[in-house]
Specification:
Helices cover about 40% and strands about 10% of the residues. It contains four helices and four strands; from the N terminus they run E-H-H-H-E-E-E-H. The protein starts with 5 loop residues before the first strand and ends with a helix. The structure holds zinc ion.
Length: about 110
């Protein structure tokens, strides 16, 4: 049975800072990187914070995959050509990202 909400999103819990806010922060970042809508991230956050630490952990574990190896998924989708590419510059997920400078130029052109 696999009822994890976003099984493709991987967040390592074991061996990392076990602080509730730190865990939640990493989950939010991972979800943002996976382009999960902000309302859904907010809903997860609200649910996770609605009770005690154990509830937070179980919410996190039902939301993202916490069992796999930490795998830095640096693939982004180019805002211009829709291709997946490796984000060498660790560009912020809030900004449009591009596979090449050319695509960036095209995107910002009138
Ligand atoms: Zn591109």
């Amino acid at each position: 049975m696999n009822d994890i909400l976003y099984p493709h999103v991987n967040v390592k819990i074991v061996g990392e800072d076990g602080n509730a806010f730190s865990i939640l922060g990493r989950v939010q970042k991972a979800l943002e990187r996976a382009k999960v809508p902000k309302e859904e991230i907010d809903a997860v956050t609200e649910d996770a914070m609605s009770s005690d630490y154990n509830h937070l952990l179980s919410t996190v574990m039902n939301t993202v995959d916490t069992t796999g190896d930490e795998e830095e998924e640096d693939l982004k989708v180019c805002a211009w050509c829709d291709q997946e590419f490796e984000d060498k510059y660790d560009q912020s997920s809030h900004e449009p990202v591009f596979c090449s400078d050319d695509c960036g130029v095209q995107f910002y052109k009138d």
